[in-house]
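Input set for joint prediction.
Command: fold jointly, output tokens.
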Amino acid sequence: MEVLTIGQLARRAGVNVETLRYYERRDLLPDPPRTSSGYRQYTPDAVRRIGFIKRAQQLGFTLHEIGELLALRVDPDANCDAVEERAEHAIERIDAKVAELARMRSALGELVTACHARCPTDDCPILDALEPEDIDHATPC
Amino acid sequence: MEVLTIGQLARRAGVNVETLRYYERRDLLPDPPRTSSGYRQYTPDAVRRIGFIKRAQQLGFTLHEIGELLALRVDPDANCDAVEERAEHAIERIDAKVAELARMRSALGELVTACHARCPTDDCPILDALEPEDIDHATPC
DNA sequence: CTTGACCCTGTACCTGACTACAGGGTTTAT
DNA sequence: ATAAACCCTGTAGTCAGGTACAGGGTCAAG
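tokens >
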């Protein structure tokens, strides 16, 4: 099986070597096996794991939260109900993010429309996005 | 018209007073008018603006990006095409986030399914989420 | 058999986004 | 008219998430 040094892994994953050691300290990457001289030996699927971490960060998850998501798969003997509960909770948070992004997107769409219609934009359509509750904002002009 | 001191605004928006002054320095909040003694005088709509900032942060936008989003509405005389272009770009980034969240969500759903089916979870379904390209991952068990 | 490009640990430093004073003026309630 | 509870500016400290050495060992090419 193909093995990667930390430098090769870093290049493939597009991150810094120091970042990988940092992730290892934070338990986001499992301690890899070592050569007799102490070099870390990664398998290529570590690239995917790092990709997951990086993308989840872009979505506003903290490293701590990402660690919890990644931990969902370990320990196949774990209590199935507990895993499911945490997964469902994660899904809820994801759905909330999607909903807010949708409102933000629609506000931006309205902004473009307003701009085209030469509406007075002193009243900012973008602020209609991301309100705590989905209040009425049907004022096309 | 109702005016708010910085402390009142902070309480309503659920943030620290220092945070508001910090946002002002970062130009996320416009410099408000002042009383003769120098106290800031906010209008209640500042609460919405801060809500926008906080929610956008949860979605992984940096304060810099949030500033750009908020700037989209100022200067009604600005070049309409430029505003539209930036808004479209923002929409693209939002759509990308939504797509990644959707993949993450579906991976979590699969995880729950796998757990119920007592699949061997050594092969982690959650890592199938957030792949750079939507590669085939139709291995229900 | 050495030289350059790697790897190791450990510690210190950096940026973004706050948060907490210090030192001083203002407003309000008693 | 004075104490509590604000507000002001300015500067320094904190935490997350890295990033950069220093000081030393390892490996592959010539």
